[in-house]
Amino acid sequence: MSTRRYYAHTKKGRPPEEWEPLRRHLEEVAECAERFAQAAGADARGIGAALVAGRLHDLGKYDERFQDYLRCSAAGRPAEAFSHKHYGAAEAARFGRDLAIAIAGHHGGLPDTSELGSRIANVDSSPLLDAACEDGAAVIGLAVPAIAGHVRRLPLNFDLHTRLLFSCLVDADALCTEQFVEPEKSALRVPRPLDAVALARRLDAHLCTMNREGPVNALRREVLVACRAAGALEPGFFSLTVPTGGGKTLASMAFALEHVKAHAKAHGLRRILYVIPYVSIIEQNADVFREALGEEWVLEHHSLAQVEHDERRVGEETVDPAAVSARLATEDWDAPVVVTTTVQFFESLFSNRPGACRKLHNIARSVVIFDECQTLPPPMLEPILDMLRGLTEHWGVSMVFCTATQPAFGRSERLPAGLDNVREIAPDPQALFCALRRTRVHWPKSEGDVWDFARVSDEMLRAPDRQALCVVNTKAHARELFEVLRNQLELPGDGRLAGAGLFHLSTAMFPAHRTATLKAIRARLHGRLPCLVAATQLVEAGVDLDFPVVLRALAPMDSIAQAAGRCNREGSRAEGGEVHVFVPEHDMGPPGWYETAREVTRALLRAGEPDIHDPELYRRYFKKLYPLGDLDARGIQGKRRNLAFAEVAEAFHIIDKATVSVAVREFPDRCGDVGLVEDLLAEVRRRGAPSREILRKLQPYTLNLYRNAFDAAHAMGHIHEFVPSLWVLEGRHAYREEVGVDIEESIAFIV
To answer: What pTM was estimated for this model as a whole?
Structure first.
């Protein structure tokens, strides 16, 4: 063994004797990556590949130039950076493209395969292999026979296989590095394996406390019994088609727990992921699960999740270890029950960045529940369903599609990536919908039956207890209806409208403001106090509201059904609720698929009044809708076949990238915590730039503006750059308690 010492990482201010030996780092990462691949259910070749990837990923650090870089950095001297990743990638290419791609991307991100060859073509790794062998590093070792010969898979399967290998490598590398560089932080990671038996008992005990009388609760118990029984079925695809208010949130969790209990040994099921489309309802559902299962078992991960922790304070007595452990678990989803958003879930699956991909190996061998699955975006439905099928067929994932408006995800000529053998869990959905019929729907009398907002307002004011919700298609219409209601009620615009029972809800309001408004609305509904709400579709899917009267501007059929689900939700009104679908004056909606879907709704109306309580209506609706547009509008499948990982990541975005995030600085006290925002901005000013932690804490007070709205507000002087990369909206009249951002030119364009 050589007397020459090679290091992977230094410790600031400490002598070389306390630095991390490179040999040890390579072996620890290899063992950890191998363990992750085994737990994910990889085959022998995949497990061997993970081991070799760990041993080779930092081969380039045996270059003297990298060792010089470490010594200079540790001594505080100027150091020339040295890119080490291509040396391991070049050596790994002998065993397979998957290994080479994963190693080449373990710092900067998975590269497009078309560029990889030119990056490693002239790289000579043999001197570094010699140095590694002299150092005693098992850079290849016993795994060579297991990975001999390049892996042969279809391109789309190879894409997913490479992503999972990459995930095992980068998570192992991050955790092993953290253990040496930040041991105090590493010690706060407390993995908690899923104990499905104990959690099922907890859930049962919780459900017993909720056993109430009445026909709706009797039907919810029917759904629950069916979900528990279905847990014994073999893993694969499932649907849970239950009307709004049918108790599918806890029933689907009961299925997942029973499914894990039945298949933990045979199939390695080990985690439950609950995926929700909207941030506006994720906290509501996470709270339901925390109450039912216990806070320590549930990880909530989304852009607005508040885990009070500052990395600089790790190790101090003021740190809450449980909070820190939870925040750390969001990095790789090493938690028993994870509640997250559609954006987090899918943009991680299609990302090429190490930070986003760390969690992928923990998605394998899990039960994934998609709440309100009809919201999956049609322009990306082909790659989404293909990715889901790959996870189920090759990585042991069971999936449940939950909704009252079940889409037509089956394979067809227009949807070749559609799913086969999706098994329904609910007992006779047709009978359930009929039994849970709690509303009467009034459709437009004709295509010329147009309502102005004065007519809409009159209808709302006639509602029992003066409680009514109206959902419209745009923020401009929500604002217009709100003003009409205020004028009819003769209310002033001085912030006293909530007290009078008049509310506006749209994404012109920052998230914390919307959350506070929803809380106030629920309190008035519960107290049977007047409550009139003008809202956009953000209140539809999953938001727990119960009005006697709901009005819905003509919309896609699934949106109409979801809006109707906010009417007589608990079935407490024996006479039923009233839903009015109307065509507004100056009818308009977001362009693209939304307008196409409205046209399909109009076609169904011409054929007769649809029955929104018939689950087959939605299958017919989606079968008519999907052939009308491109289900892979950004060509993602072709990019995946070409193994263009960077191009896929650039193309796949559920939320439009053409927006600018703007923190709201000045707003009425009743909209949120002004002091918190000021404290955070003061810290930004002190640092000269916002940290990731500060940006996360500002998220509840941040709006996303389309570029044209941003430019208009900037030109008006309402937006300025607080520090580089942080834009702030301020001005005494720029943000109002009633409607949020108060910039006429921008109202219609806020995401």
So the answer is: 0.90
